[in-house]
Amino acid sequence: MKKILKRLKPESIRSKSGLAIIVTAAILVEVTSAVQYLFARQGIRQEVEHRAESELRAKRLEIRNVTNVVEVAVENMAWAVQQRLQQPDSMLAITRKLLSDNEYIVGSAVAFEPNYYKEKGRQFSPYSYKQNGNILSKQLGTDSYDYHSMEWYTVPMKSGNAHWSDPYFDEGGGEMVMSTYSLPIRDPQGNIVAIFTADVSLDWLSELINARHIYPSSYNLLLSRTGQIMACPVESLVMRKNIEQVTADIEDTTVDYINRQMLSGGSGQATIRDQKGEKNYVYYAPMGDGTGWSMAVICSDYEVFYSLRQVGFNLFILMLLGLGLLCFIIMRTARNVRRLQAVNAEKERMGNELHIASEIQKGMLPKTFPPYPERDDVEIFGSLTPAKEVGGDLFDFFIRDEKLFFCIGDVSGKGVPASLVMAVTRSLFRTVSAHEASPERLVTQMNDSMAQMNETNMFVTLFLGVLDLPTGRLRYCNAGHCPPVLVGDGVGQIPVLSNVPVGLMAGWKYEGQELLVRPQTTIFLYTDGLTEAEDYKHAQFGEGRMMKALKEMTPTDSQTPQSIIERITDTVTDFVGDAEQSDDLTMLAIHYTKSQLDVKFTRNLVLQNDVQQVGRLNEWVDEVCEAVGFDATTTMQMNLALEEAVVNVMNYAYPHGIVGNIHIEAQANDMRLKFTIVDSGSPFDPTAQEEADTSLSVEDRPIGGLGIHLVRQLMDSINYERTEGKNILTLRKKLTQK
Amino acid sequence: MKTTIEENGGVQVVTFEGRLDTAASAQTEKDLQSLDYESGQDIILDCSHLEYISSSGLRLFLGVLKNAKEKGIHVYIKGITDDVRSVFAMTGFINLFEFKQ
Prior knowledge:
The structure holds two protein chains of two kinds.
Chain A: H1 2-83, H2 91-101, E1 105-112, E2 126-131, E3 134-139, H3 151-159, E4 163-164, E5 168-169, E6 177-186, E7 192-201, H4 203-211, E8 219-223, E9 229-231, H5 243-246, H6 253-263, E10 268-273, E11 279-286, E12 294-300, H7 301-304, H8 306-364, E13 378-385, E14 393-400, E15 403-411, H9 415-432, H10 439-452, E16 460-468, E17 473-479, E18 485-487, E19 491-493, E20 513-516, E21 521-526, H11 528-531, H12 542-551, H13 561-576, E22 585-592, E23 601-608, H14 614-628, H15 632-652, E24 661-668, E25 672-679, H16 707-714, E26 717-723, E27 726-734
Antiparallel strand pairs in A: 1-2, 1-7, 2-3, 4-6, 5-6, 6-7, 8-9, 8-12, 10-11, 11-12, 13-22, 14-15, 15-16, 16-17, 17-20, 18-19, 18-21, 21-22, 23-24, 24-25, 25-27, 26-27
Chain B: E1 2-8, E2 11-20, H1 22-32, E3 43-53, H2 55-71, E4 75-78, H3 82-91, E5 98-100
Parallel strand pairs in B: 2-3, 3-4, 4-5
Antiparallel strand pairs in B: 1-2
Helix pairs in contact in B: 1-2
């Protein structure tokens, strides 16, 4: 469990902000759409109300159009009835006239009070009616039909006002729904003497009420003042049912309230639930002044808000899709951000490592200039400008036994791989040259080592030189590198064999070359980063410009290696301009000055290769030391150094039993004393021997190997040269300042 | 160069006089062969009168020390001059030997 939690934790922390965004967005969208929904709902409610009220108003107008016509016509004819009260037989003509003038009026009677005309009997009511397009007449009152008790007669008689009867179905007559409009007729004294009626067909009402709906399934309902259903979409209820019967099974008490309101001529609106419990909106209003009719418009909530719900549903789906999309985007973004962070962290780490690598690489190059301030025979300056953090160029130098070992190289490729090869090359140079002074053998050894482990076919162009400082003899070996330039009395390239670059072919025997460097000459070495430096047009600096710059150098400029390199750097920087540096730029300048102080003193000694002659050497060294003014201790040290060096030659130069000479010369100037030991024996370089380890214990300590160690300890410098078949060993000791 | 060995109070004392250079070392090597490593007696190398020593002489000293160590006996150096001491220092021999005044 803990494991799972551990695994979940960082994930959940990372997704926390994403989750917050999604939740916020969801709430925002939800609130927005809820508000929008509410507003839209309110708008729709207002719209429904508006439409329902218009509907009610319109229907009322249309009903009034008919009832007004009827009322006006009847009132007009009533005047004729009043005028002819004395002529009972003209009444029928009046009713016929009313019928013929009005399409809505299908029957009309003038019903008199009982026994109004003595001659006409108790009931006198001339009546005309329409049948099949004809107007027929008859007496209304019969024994079986006493009209004096009918509603249409008694109500206006009692109130003295016009009256619309409750609608009724005219069975046996017109077979239609009708309502009778009754108007009291008064005699000149103001007594009501008769009721003038007009039977109005209400067939048009049903049609009118059902004609239009404000919604496809909304419907209109017309009620009489007693609650009779006069018009509704269900034909079977019309004139057969009372509204209270129809709504009896509806639980919603609002319905009863509406019923009461409608029957008492009120108007308004309400929300009800029908038998199925569905929500409906009811708008109702009275339909006429005298008729007592009331109409209601009923629309279902479902239908009214159908499109809104549809829109709401669509919105909800859209919102879900949007949220889903948002989720997806956030997850993708979060993943990308994580990936980016990882990449950035990796980049930073690599950047840091590169920076460290760059520092390490810089540390491998000589960086203290001038490197040998105490020496008067050589001055060196070098500079390496890598194109990237780390580069594949190298230069290095050091002095061992009065020989300057130096090299400059350029690893194929750039960046980290090149820098690794550069580091290997540099350390190989240091390792192999510790015990070897021949450039061709040094390069051959380096090549063998590097070719063996060269998996990537990287190689180094290398120029390696060994300058013998006492003589100015330069031995060098070129492995595919560009030829260095000598800047002295003239300017010229050093002739080089190209051989092959280091690291490519194991077993290649490199060939060395040799020349004598005159004093006051500078060896200028460079990598192709100089000659191949490009300006923005990709033109190369070239050897020509380099040689020209070197030739044009003033004597002041060419005096120190630093000024030479600075001048060349300025020239190439001007040439390149703003173009990006494409390759490492490396230069090394070695200014050679042979120290030539006046020789004040020379002594010579010739010995044979016999250790018993050491005594003679002692005496001679004592003499020399006395001549240069050394004290006893220094004299003892000179004796010891000379004895060790000479005995070494005696033991190794000549084969056993062969007698050979050893020439020893002592020279002194104002500065130092120099011993030169020359023999014609087989080549033997004592300086190439392993240093004795003076820290070993008695058991591990070898018996031999001490001699050359002592010489190094006692003398300021030791130098070996093999020239013209001779071994030349030079030992130097500074003179004691007096 | 003169090398003498004498027993003195259960200790073998080797006295060097003069210059122990390469020429002299052959004879000195012979002289030192009479040292008795089996007797269990410690060895004192008296260098009070040793004027000079070269690497061939140091080799002889190291030989004596190695032989003695094998037999578990001590080798002391006595009365060394500053010049010779400096040679011992340069070669690290100063760490190998025990010194006595």
